[in-house]
Structures are given as structure tokens and as C-alpha cells.
């Protein structure tokens, strides 16, 4: 395997350490969630960092696949989100939230605030700019006549 970036290690040990000791601002970005097809077409963005009060649909799991609910808490320390209808009961009968990783969810509705709108616009603009990247275009060269 050829190393492409000198600053990034290929070592599994170092990658795991970086992941599990990541600060909160990096965890926010790593805890991003895919958008539904409608939102993806509307905003031109594939995924967003997840936030409280977003509505999500759980995409994975035999029992709870397809469950929709609002996000109650984003628990960055444990890398999970808590969804309002996603609970189980303790032996004492007390309800407890089940943690779900954001990669197993799909954003259905977004709570749009000013900073989030700006983020979506920036990301969409960058995607639109790079959409031609890597495409081979036919270039017409004009032949100049020499006297």
C-alpha cells in the first residue's frame, strides 16, 4: 500500500487511538448522519453533523429498523444519539434510552438555524464546484495557419 498523505498514519493502532481520544469538535463531525433522498436533492448535501431536535429514521436492526423519532440528546462521549421513542425498561421499570450510532440513522427533517444554513450553502457550493472534477472534456484546438 502506498501512503498518499505524509501527515496521516496508516497504522491501525494510531487510527484507533485518534478516534477514541478525539476532542468534542472532531466527534461532532465524525457523528454525521446521511440525509434522506428528498433532503439530499433539496439541499445538495449528502450528510450533516447530527443535532438535537432533528428527526431521524433508524436504518439498522431487526426490531427497530424503520423507527422514526426526534433526537433527544447527542452523547458525544459515547458516540451515540438518544431518540425519543427508542427506549427499553430496566428491571425496576424505569425507562432508559438506547444509544444509536448516527451512521445507522437517516435524517428526515432538519432543524435549520442560521449557522446550519450557512454550512449547507458552503458544502453545496463546494460540491457544485467540484462536480466537473475528473471529467474528461473534449477540447477543440484551433490550428493556426503559418504564412
Automatic annotation (TrEMBL):
The keyword Translocase does not apply. CDD domains: KOW_RPL26. Gene3D superfamilies: 2.30.30.30. One of its GO terms (cellular component) is ribosome. It comes from the Eukaryota. Keywords: Ribonucleoprotein, Ribosomal protein. SUPFAM superfamilies: Translation proteins SH3-like domain. Belongs to the universal ribosomal protein uL24 family. This is 60S ribosomal protein L26. It comes from Paratrimastix pyriformis.
Amino acid at each position: 500500500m502506498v501512503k498518499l498523505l505524509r501527515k496521516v498514519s496508516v497504522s491501525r493502532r494510531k487510527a484507533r487511538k485518534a478516534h477514541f481520544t478525539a476532542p468534542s469538535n472532531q466527534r461532532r463531525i465524525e457523528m454525521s448522519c446521511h440525509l434522506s433522498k428528498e433532503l439530499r436533492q433539496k439541499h445538495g448535501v449528502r450528510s450533516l453533523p447530527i443535532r438535537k431536535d432533528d428527526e431521524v429514521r433508524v436504518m439498522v436492526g431487526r426490531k427497530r429498523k424503520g423507527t422514526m423519532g426526534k433526537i433527544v440528546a447527542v452523547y458525544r462521549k459515547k458516540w451515540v444519539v438518544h431518540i425519543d421513542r427508542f427506549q427499553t425498561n430496566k428491571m425496576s421499570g424505569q425507562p432508559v434510552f438506547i444509544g444509536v450510532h448516527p451512521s445507522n440513522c437517516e435524517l428526515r427533517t432538519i432543524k435549520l438555524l442560521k449557522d446550519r444554513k450557512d454550512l449547507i450553502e458552503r458544502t453545496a457550493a463546494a460540491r457544485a464546484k467540484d462536480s466537473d472534477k475528473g471529467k474528461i472534456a473534449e477540447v477543440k484546438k484551433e490550428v493556426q495557419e503559418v504564412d
